[in-house]
Predict the 3D structure of the following.
Amino acid sequence: MKKHIVPIGIAMALLVFAGRTASAQTISINSVSGSTFCGGDPVSVSFTVTGFWQHNNAFTLQLSDPSGSFTNGFSNLSSIKDTLPGTFTFSTAAPKTAVASTHYRVRVIGALPYVESADNGSDLAIGQAPHLGLEINSITGVGMPLVALTTPPAYEDNTVLLDTFYWNLGDGGVPADTSGVGLWALETDSSSGTPTIITYSTAGTKTVTVRVVTPEGCSATATGTVHVFDCSSPVIPHDAHVIDTNATVYYDTTAIWVNPGVTVYVGGGGDTIFAESGSTITYAGGENIIYLKPGAVLNNGGGNIVIFATGANPSHPAYQFSCPSLTFDYSTAPPNKAMGPLAVQAPSVPISVTLSPNPSTGTVQISGMPDQAREISVLDVLGKTVIDFEHSAPTMTLDLSKHPKGTYYFRFLVGTTVTTKAIVLE
């Protein structure tokens, strides 16, 4: 009988292979980094495997359905490729789309060969984080009510009514802070039906913050801005673009100074437009701030913020604020042949001109003109100049009887100060 001699190297390999195949592959979960999570929160799961695994094996962390079952409806959260025994950690996140439940479980599976661990052994809670988008009626005036601060409901069903909303209106806001269950709109307290009156005591750009907390303790924060105006004279900056002829302009985030009698189409957005008496804005792209002096006209201002004086025509912009005696601060304005030299070269002179009688049947007496006065213009309600002449004496008489009845605006240029007075012709 022949004896077969197996080389020692092959024998050792067979022993190792036999040892590997004899040791069973197992997976056990050691720990989960918490028991309560919100969508998007970090999750760490530690697990240990024994035995040796085939080439291209992967360990996968799975999340059950909301009832804790892995029969169907589970999801894969993370995978690690390895073939050796040891202890590993998954570092992943709770799904943002997970349905809120307190009965989730996790398990780990191996692919080659296919092996399932037991689940983690206790329920895990995952809550849905709110999805916010703050909607703000972004213009108001000091002391004027602001009634359109809302966050669209985070869910399509009524669960949003159980969320708690924490509002902070920013500097000068009244009330400064307010909160409540279901208070998703500060227009009206949806839990009580009581209107919430919002005002600001100071002007400026305010940061509004709302934090929403769900019954499961998940939260989200959104911010927005409110532009609060008062009737202080806006400053024309030194880098403003002077528009002195009819034009179409396309600027962004700049200042535009429109001269009397000029018609301009503004195609850009984010501009600040200073419209002198008698100027016309035929169109302005959205998100501009437009100041209209008496006799200035805005024909299409939708989507803009418009601050206008008595006698201006602001059309029907989405956001408008009335400043009856609006004027401009020219102290840093650029050279403008229609408005005179810079204030730093010719300081502004106080002016207190009076028109009488007012109303008038035709004859108007102008009193109180200082010696530095240079020009006087009379504009109709459409901003059209009907009379234009040089100053000649402190007291003057002007006849308007040949003009149609209505309101007229006298424009006085003294140094770099422009003053407008209204008079009614009967």
